[in-house]
């Protein structure tokens, strides 16, 4: 029994060195976002903002790089169109005949 345990330790010894690296933290963030997205336990919009908090916290990317990725022109246009469509749906303008 102990020999099998030692054999497994030697086999997976290199994986222990990965713990605490940015790659592991990035994989954790992706896994967390996937679970939140599939279960919908929090809003999808909030799930999309998780990297803005966790990437600088874990040292994966500096906050300036993360924020620059979120505030590109195309992304802002997409967010603006989502806000506009939500406002149209909330006020039920799309149901009124012209």
From TrEMBL:
Keyword Transmembrane helix included in the entry's annotation: yes
GO molecular function, one term: transmembrane transporter activity
UniProt main location, coarse: membrane
Membrane topology: Multi-pass membrane protein
Domain of life: Eukaryota
Cellular compartments per GO CC: plasma membrane
Compartments, record wording: Membrane
Name of this chain's protein: Solute carrier family 13 member 5-like
